[in-house]
Amino acid sequence: MKKALGLLASGFLALALTACGGSQTSSTAINEKKIVVGVTSGLHEQILEKVKEVAAKDGLEVELKVFSDFQMPNIALVEKEIDANSYQSIPFLETYKKEHKADLVGVGQTVLNPMGMYSKKIKSLDELKEGDKLGLPSDPTNSVRALMLFQSAGLIKLKDGVGDEATVLDIAENPRKLQFVELDAAQIAKQLDDLTAAAINTSYAIKNNLKPGKDSLFLEQKESKHHNIIVVRSENKDDVAVQKLVKAYQNDEVKKFVEDTFEGSVIPVW
């Protein structure tokens, strides 16, 4: 591994592990030769299939457990049904930990899946009219992310200081009097016919044949703090299997796979 992981994001998550660092064995250590990783279906599943190939060369078997929503991979990790997961951003993890008092920790950066705005009715945000409906995810973390996206696009202005606690009630300026419809993140793309436009996570966009780099009206910028991470239980953060998983993910072969497969719609960040 070319560099230490370092800090993933100021104020969110400090990481002490490096893929080439020394290992410690906990009383509940993961099997050094096999690790079970939870992923959401779609792009994370695709990437981990490649990581699985790379890890095998280092003597680590990676078994994938695929989930259809954003909550179950963390629940399964806490309940020890899986050993790690790879699908969530730092803010999402921090919110989950706060709400559920979960002892989980990030151990390695993976990719940025930029949230974008999509539409079947307009080709530019300039075409938005008074009263048009905009869809956004209903879960707190992705809802805030969508509101920040709308603000970056110049559609709204949020109240000063609301930060990561923002909700639709914190919209201070809405010059077009747009209507905001909160929906399950996995269903928004399927309901585009009923909306003027919507903020959709990359994984769900790709699953519905939308290409972020090509089809989005507005795309989250690279400076976004919503990088994804590999997450494990704190007791396992130094386990050999976890180190091998991070090393396999942060590999040039995986980086090339991501760049070639997703053509800029998914961005490696290690």
UniProtKB/TrEMBL annotation:
PROSITE patterns reported for this sequence: PROKAR_LIPOPROTEIN
SUPFAM superfamilies per UniProt: Periplasmic binding protein-like II
Organism domain of life: Bacteria
An example Gene Ontology CC term for this record: membrane
Membrane topology according to the record: Lipid-anchor
Gene Ontology MF term list: dioxygenase activity
Similarity remark: Belongs to the nlpA lipoprotein family.
Name of the protein: Lipoprotein
